[in-house]
Design brief:
Layout: H1 2-27, E1 30-33, E2 42-48, E3 54-60, H2 65-76
Parallel strand pairs: 1-3
Antiparallel strand pairs: 2-3
């Protein structure tokens, strides 16, 4: 009888562990939002979201930050943009 519970509960905990692993892998995937134009006038901006996912957006070199913000809001399908902001982080150091 105890071996039955051990097997059953063991299988349930393994299922939860596998689900957590799938969620971790999904969080580290990156999404690319391409831009039209030649590659010389395009810059790729990487945005790290709070859930751990990365979104890369291609923008013209002369684009303003508002264009990047608008693309990210559109990609995430968010309407209320007043609650969110972008923060610039240099690649050499964090924040």
């Amino acid at each position: 009888m105890l071996s039955f519970f051990h097997r059953t509960l063991g299988n349930l905990s393994m299922g939860k562990h596998e689900e957590k692993e799938r969620l971790r892998e999904a969080q580290h995937t990156a999404t690319l939002i391409p831009a039209a134009g030649d590659s010389k006038s395009i810059i790729t901006c990487r945005v790290s979201l709070l859930d751990g996912t990365d979104v890369s957006a291609d923008l013209p070199k002369k684009a303003k930050g508002q264009e990047l913000f608008d693309q990210i809001m559109y990609h995430l399908d968010l309407i209320e943009s007043g609650y969110f902001y972008l923060r610039f982080m240099e690649s050499a150091r964090l924040a």
